[in-house]
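Quick one: co-fold with magnesium ion.
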Amino acid sequence: MGELLEEQDLGHWRRTHYSSEISPSIGDNEVVVMGWVASVRDHGNIQFIILKDMHGELQITAKKGECSDSLFQMAKEVKEHSSIGVRGKVRPQEKAPNGAEIVPVELKAFSVAKKAAPFLVQGKTSPVGIDTRLDLRAVDLRRNYLGSIFRIRQTVLNSVREFLARQKFIEVNTPKMIATATEGGAALFPIFYYDREAYLAQSPQLYKEQLTMAFESVFEIGPIFRAEPSRTNRHLSEAISIDVERAFSDYNDVMALLERMIVNIVDTIKERNQDDLKYLELQLPAVSLPFPKYTYSDLIDKLQEAGERIQWGDDISPQVMKSLQDERLGGFYFIIDWPTSTKPFYVKPGAADNGRVCESFDLMFGSLEMSSGSTRINRKDQLVERMTKQGLKPAAFDYHLRVFDYGVPPHAGFGLGLERLMMALTKVENIRDATLYPRDIDRLAP
Ligand code: ATP
Ligand code: MG
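Sure, here it is.
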């Protein structure tokens, strides 16, 4: 066993065609295809190998007598997941993908699978638990289902970048190693920074606000780090945030921007991911402009009518939202005008009622929070006052506060969780499947 199937280097071999390009019209020319073995079927004198590459799959048909004995033997020995290349000819075959199969002339095993994977990667759902899959995530990601999810993710990212570029935003990257908490709070990961303690950034908030001074319209797509000790299906310790900040705007302006961005994302997926949507049998959420808006106060009234023991000033948890049997709260909608006390210090209190509510919003999808945003405070004295009220020490934020002596424009923005958005768009139930290598309280590897 295994003698013929010796592992070989790539050498001069190069792929001539992807699986999607294989068709009867190629005619008599030889092709070289490469990929991993999705399945093998042994029919005695015929071996079928289904080979997968980044664009799909194709069928290799090795028939005794039609190919050399040694090649036939190799085709018999090849195991699922092995990485191989095949040189051969294309022959029409109705039952094969793209209506053609490859008749092999030469087979190279680049890397032979040494053991069977602890789970199957065929099929949309997996009977093994998510932890088994995550332990061998790179193999798990060979699943068609996850392939579709991450191609849709790619479209989301491209469409966000294209959309914001059209609105003249520039993409920035802010430090992820920071000296003080963005908003205070205990959700920080401390790190060693030379001889000092530092933290992983929980948000680019203060930096993106500062950058409106020079660039006016900025966005960042990057990691946020949060120590979330509770185990939920919607929290990661490392998530990707789409952070947007715009000068000379208020929260109504950036809500309008955010909802148009979401509609653009949905339209772009419909256009670019037709095959994935078909495979997933996925109906994207219906979106029409403008998204419904409910004030925090109205929702509290509704919740109290529904018998929830919730007080004005409390946060609204997903569990509580689920108790509202209101179909208008099924898709995307905004909850606006939150109590000032529930939001971070940089959120601007409204003019009315002594600033009891602030110019803030959460974008929701059903009971799941997608994004938080607001008009920001752009004056130093107000910032210091709000910080002090929230028990933060202004001195710790000196590096931030000092720029407010030099004309920070009025500005507003939001942070949108990429994985949360993926959950809304693709109906992935566990946020861990919307990220390649999830980090949570129990998992720091792979
Ligand atoms: P939640 O109340 O759901 O924990 P949050 O209000 O603490 O979220 P924000 O600080 O408002 O979160 O962050 C902005 C967005 O970033 C959130 O609306 C969410 O989409 C995303 N986000 C925040 N924390 C996480 C996390 N731990 N895992 C995944 N996404 C997150
Ligand atoms: Mg929030």
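If it helps, The mean pLDDT is 95.
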